[in-house]
Design a protein that fits this description.
Blueprint: E1 11-15, H1 19-27, E2 34-39, E3 43-45, H2 50-54, E4 64-66, H3 67-70, E5 77-81, E6 84-88, E7 93-96, E8 99-102, E9 105-108, E10 112-114, H4 120-125, H5 132-151, H6 155-162, E11 163-167, H7 171-191, E12 201-205, H8 217-230, E13 232-235, E14 240-243, E15 247-250, E16 255-257, E17 260-263, E18 267-269, E19 280-281, E20 285-288, E21 300-302, E22 307-309, H9 322-340, E23 355-360, E24 363-368, E25 371-374, H10 376-389, H11 393-409, E26 421-422, E27 427-428
Helix pairs in contact: 1-9, 5-6, 7-8
């Protein structure tokens, strides 16, 4: 079979092996279609736990799973590892680094990437965390700077190496700040007896007046209380003014000497070239109708973080979270089947199951409809939901073992510098 040929069954090309793409492909099992997934990686990443990889709490392969293995028993599925460069609506093909691929229907499930809001200084000097390689880069940077802090004779240099600034007070920023604070409180002096807990400082900078703005006011307040109790210095309603690589300046006048700025302040859709800029909306997302069909096209669809389902009821689209992507994938599979059967498609409606965020050991917040929990019970809910959302039983077992070990020992065995990170050149050595 050649990738530029249309087979007897309609070919549905899915670009991206994230939550939405995986769910869509699964629901097309045994349907009279050919499903071809294209992704630059040959594995699916469970992104909600990337921060734990960055902190050395779990290994990278515990949140990754081979895409081909997910669909090992799905006969109408095939996979190609490739970078998609263009989408060509006029010829119904996509251009990749392994050649052109023809489609009957194409679904963009490319997800999102870090949004630096056009600031090249921040893009080149801060650390994002949207992929496993980036999480591993961050782990190396954190551990390398602690090692440097042990041997430096300059107190000013030592402070800069041990000051950690997290920018962004959403779930990722809150969870990362809490993990850094727990590392300082429980791990630092154990692993590095030359240092004191007071040597390491954690700051959280958020532009909104509250943390976790998407959650309830009570959850936002408790999250800030929990972080403050852990020793995090929280700055709300402020923005980063500049960062030189040595000094971060906040627009309230605060100056922090630091070599560690972790960027979790926003994301933007990862849009493939060939999509007209006129149909991109806020957050660099592709505007779709209520059927996830890209505006102006009949056989191009978008789901997940890259899609903005704009309707009178959802003028801003839906939140860029995993449950929304999964629901869109499931629903689009039904609609594509209906389309192939010449039946009318049904509009997509998002069902909000709630929001969760963990701050640290026994500390979390949960908004589940009208129910709101904080503390230990919320932490149990968070752990259960994330554990069961992992792709395979193997991943669940590995993560559970790591969590249990960390819970009872306040430590982990994954704080390894496997590959050194050159912060000046922003690359792996």
């Amino acid at each position: 079979m050649h990738l530029n040929e249309i087979t007897n069954h309609p070919r549905i090309v899915i670009i991206g092996g994230g939550f939405g793409g995986i769910e869509l492909a699964k629901k097309l099992k045994d349907k009279p279609v050919e499903v071809l997934m294209v992704d630059k990686n040959n594995y699916h990443t469970f992104q909600p736990l990337l921060y734990q990889v960055a902190m050395g709490d779990i290994e990278a392969d515990s949140i990754a799973f081979p895409i081909r293995k997910i669909f090992g028993d799905q006969r109408n599925f095939s996979f190609r590892m490739a970078n998609v460069q263009f989408i060509n609506p006029e010829t119904n093909t996509i251009t990749t680094d392994i050649g052109d691929i023809a489609y009957d229907y194409v679904v963009m499930a490319t997800g999102s990437t870090t949004n630096f809001f056009g600031n090249s200084e921040l893009a080149s000097r801060t650390m994002p965390m949207k992929s496993i390689p980036e999480a591993l880069n961050l782990r190396s940077l954190i551990l390398q700077n602690i090692e440097k802090a042990i041997i430096t004779e300059s107190q000013e240099e030592k402070e800069a190496l041990l000051n950690f600034v997290v920018v962004g007070g959403g779930p990722t920023g809150v969870e990362l700040s809490g993990a850094l604070a727990e590392m300082r409180n429980y791990v630092l002096t154990y692993d590095y007896p030359e240092l004191r807990k007071e040597d390491m400082k954690v700051y959280l900078v958020e532009g909104k007046e509250e943390l976790l703005a998407v959650m309830s006011p009570n959850a936002s307040k408790k999250a800030k209380d929990f972080l403050t109790e852990l020793g995090v210095e929280v700055h709300n309603d402020v923005h980063v003014q500049s960062y030189t690589g040595d000094e971060l300046v906040i627009d309230n006048g605060k100056r922090i000497q630091t070599r560690n700025v972790l960027w979790a302040a926003g994301v933007k859709g990862e849009v493939i070239k060939g999509i007209p800029k006129e149909i991109l909306v806020r957050g660099n997302r592709i505007q779709t109708d209520e059927f996830n069909r890209v505006k102006g096209y009949g056989n191009i669809f978008a789901i997940g973080d890259v899609a903005a389902v704009i309707t009178p009821d959802t003028p801003e689209g839906h939140p860029g979270v995993a449950p929304a992507a999964i629901q869109q994938g499931k629903h689009l599979a039904k609609n594509l089947t209906r389309l192939l059967n010449n039946e009318p498609m049904e509009p997509y409606k998002y069902f909000d199951k709630g929001s969760l965020a963990t701050i640290g050991k026994n500390l979390a917040v949960a908004d589940l409809g009208k129910l709101h929990f904080q503390g230990f019970f919320a932490w149990l809910i968070w752990g259960f939901v994330h554990l069961m959302s992992l792709v395979s039983a193997r991943n669940r077992l590995i993560v559970l073992i790591n969590w249990a070990g960390s819970y009872f020992s306040n430590s982990s065995g994954s704080r390894l510098i496997i590959r050194k990170y050159d912060s000046e050149k922003m690359k792996i050595q």
